């Protein structure tokens, strides 16, 4: 297992400048992100720059899947992961806990209308999602159950914009993308791409998680991280366009294509309008909603588990206390 993880870090990771594997206690906090660096990452990267300004070094590595990122955290090769690893925690029994809710699910199932016209047309067909165990897979599995259909295969392509590009190129005909990628499909494909209905879902897309030992040993540093996440999320909620200014200030993702960089402002405006980035950091009620959603999607076995089996709210409570938000 450790060898597979190491290979994934070498072959599947695209690191920010200066990124490195997790090291010993007292060294920089390493964050494993099971996605590609994109406009969607900017709010996190802004918060991390502010954490560094407060004297806590942080390094981020982008992996090609949430699975590899989770295994890196469990093995100690990374300190913090990003995802919603409810099923992983339940199945593995690993001492991993989520501690900050970054985003809610807001995705758009979309098909090539020249091939499909509705959910029933996907019976016996292939669909493409972000990664195994991701929120995108859970959503598509939920709809498979609701609609009484069975996909022939679920394939994995990380990155909404990558999946949108594959749709535009005709390489896939059914997938699920975020708001920015859906807008791209509309702009470049017109009526060719049809959104399928998806109602009544409110669940976590991404959260920060870590081994419980790390959360205890680095409690002060984790509190600083959570404080800056709370402040950054609240600032963006008040003025989404500030992301453009802060990206330039911190020189973040300088190699973004011009079109993607230009989409940063509109993306965060839409995200705030859709309440994609909640400003409270999470709660036991949210955990219960997540478990109900994942149980309905067939990813966890029970929907009435103790939230503390999956979350540690200590870092969030400590950060809110430091900010006077309790």
UniProtKB/TrEMBL annotation:
Domain annotation SsuA/THI5-like: ranges: 52-241
Region annotation Disordered: where it falls in the sequence: 302-326
Compartments reported by the entry: Periplasm
Keywords: Signal
Signal peptide bounds: 1-24
Keyword Signal among UniProt keywords: yes
Pfam family, one: NMT1
GO cellular component: periplasmic space
Principal subcellular localization: periplasm
Family membership noted in the UniProt record: Belongs to the bacterial solute-binding protein SsuA/TauA family.
Protein name per Swiss-Prot or TrEMBL: SsuA/THI5-like domain-containing protein
């Amino acid at each position: 297992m450790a060898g597979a993880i190491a290979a994934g870090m070498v072959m599947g990771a695209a690191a920010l400048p200066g990124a490195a594997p997790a090291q010993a206690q007292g060294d920089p906090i390493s964050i494993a992100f099971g996605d590609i660096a994109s406009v969607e990452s900017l709010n996190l990267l802004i918060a991390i720059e502010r954490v560094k300004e407060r004297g806590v070094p942080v390094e981020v590595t982008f992996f090609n899947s949430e699975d590899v990122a989770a295994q890196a955290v469990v093995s100690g090769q990374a300190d913090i992961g990003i995802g919603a690893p409810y099923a992983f925690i339940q199945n593995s029994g690993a001492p991993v806990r989520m501690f900050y809710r970054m985003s809610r699910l807001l995705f758009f199932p979309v098909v090539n209308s020249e091939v499909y016209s509705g959910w029933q047309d996907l019976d016996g067909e292939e669909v493409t999602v972000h990664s195994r165990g991701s929120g995108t897979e859970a959503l598509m599995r939920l709809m498979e159950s609701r609609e009484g259909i069975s996909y022939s295969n679920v394939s994995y392509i990380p990155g909404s914009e990558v999946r949108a590009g594959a749709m535009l190129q005709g390489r896939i005909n059914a997938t699920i993308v975020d708001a920015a990628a859906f807008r791209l499909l509309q702009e470049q494909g017109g009526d060719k791409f049809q959104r399928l209905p998806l109602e009544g879902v409110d669940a976590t897309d991404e959260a920060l998680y870590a081994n419980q030992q790390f959360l205890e040993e680095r409690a002060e540093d984790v509190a600083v991280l959570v404080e800056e996440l709370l402040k950054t999320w609240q600032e963006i909620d008040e003025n989404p366009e500030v992301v453009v200014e802060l990206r330039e200030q911190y020189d973040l993702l300088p190699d973004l294509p011009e079109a993607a960089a230009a989409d940063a402002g509109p993306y965060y405006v839409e995200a705030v309008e859709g309440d994609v980035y909640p400003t409270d950091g999470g709660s036991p009620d949210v955990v219960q909603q997540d478990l109900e959603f994942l149980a309905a999607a067939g990813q966890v076995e029970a929907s009435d588990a103790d939230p503390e089996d999956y979350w540690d709210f200590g870092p969030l409570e400590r950060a809110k206390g430091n900010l006077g938000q309790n």
